[in-house]
Amino acid sequence: GRFAGFSLYISNTGDRDSSSLCYKDRPELPPLSFTTTCTLSGRYIIYYNERLDGVTYPGYEDSTSVLTELCEVTVNGCRKPGVYGSNCNILCPKYCRYRTCHIQNGTCFGCEAGYTGTVCATECPDEWYGFDCKQQCSGHCRDNDPCNKANGTCDGGCAAGWIGSFCEKECRNGTYGYGCVNNCSGHCIGDSTCNKQTGYCDRGCKPGYTNSLCNKKCSSGTYGKDCAKKCSEYCLHNISCNYIDGVCTDGCQNGYIGNICNTSCEHGRYGKNCSHTCSSNCKTCKHTDGTCSCHAGWSGPNCSITCNNSYGENCKYPCDPFCVNQTCDRFDGTCQHACPDSNKNCNVAILEDSGSNQKEDTYTAGLSVSIGFNALLLAVVLFLLWRQYTKLHSGAIKSCWESSLYEKSTHIDVPEPTYQELDLKENPYQNNN
């Protein structure tokens, strides 16, 4: 009907435009007995219903004209805000918004920030704040304290890694801690930022740094990731290597090459940066200073000295003293000049007295032949005796074997041994080296 859609305003001036809306009716027809409560204070109550020419008001039965018929209007209220009851002598609940409440039952029309309930007597639960407790705290207050339930701020400050009025902002990259006043070490692996709460490098440190903050260099003698590698012991002057990559900054000791001096010279090379070639006369060559174990015929630290009156590896064997001038081949020791008996090494002595030598050789030969012949005869006799003994004591043995030696030696006259005293020259022998 034409009564629907009206509005009520509270004002101190009578001007609707400067008034506060108290109630707005819907397009449906309101009940005949209508009661509403306004939580505002003012000198005037303005009733207003609008039907403007040329304006369509959807949902209204009659959108062209207005009919207002008020049989009775009663306005009840207390002279001052903040009280309620039949005598307006009861204070509204403490946390009612604007300290106003229903003038009859004292219920709050809204609560102060941080409180909820019909009489605003219940604090917001932890992690919530504001009007009607509809806003959530940041969750980053220091020591996990709840935020202020009225405005959401962290009264005790922010947790490490957070800043802002509500502790809602993370520390910028490269900073950490309470108030974000600490700088990261800058040595986290992969140039990653440190943990904004602790400053730790959660993924580890760059090579050359250690501890949780990665702010400590490797100690002397170590390098690399987690300082787990040891510098080469062959850095020049025993100076410690670079703590990041292990490079020997002053180079390598003789006999070693490579950035970290961990490779010895290849076979046949020696010295600083392995720049020297071992002598071809070396059998083995020390990679540090080139000292050699020499092939036959050579000696000296670099095997550059030929053997003199000696021969073999490192000239360690002396030529035979019976070589002419004690000279011999420096490789195999053969005498360079022939000996009277054509002995290559001249290591058999020749006695000076040829006459006595001949006589002594005759005596020696005769004695040797006699001893050898007598020994042979003794062996034959012993064998025959053993054969006879075996034959007498082996009657149960039918099989036997025929010895050709037995058949051919049925009778042997053993001559009586003869001896001859030799008149030998004193010292008939000579030792050879």
TrEMBL record:
Keyword field contains Ubl conjugation: no
Keywords carried by this UniProt record: Disulfide bond, EGF-like domain, Membrane, Repeat, Signal, Transmembrane, Transmembrane helix
InterPro entries linked: EGF, MEGF10/SREC1/2-like
Signal peptide: none
Coiled-coil ranges per UniProt: none
Residues of the EGF-like domain: 292-303
Top-level taxon of origin: Eukaryota
Single GO molecular function: scavenger receptor activity
Transmembrane portions of the chain: 363-386
Entry-linked SMART domains: EGF (SM00181)
Protein name: Multiple epidermal growth factor-like domains protein 11
Annotated organism of origin: Crassostrea virginica (Eastern oyster)
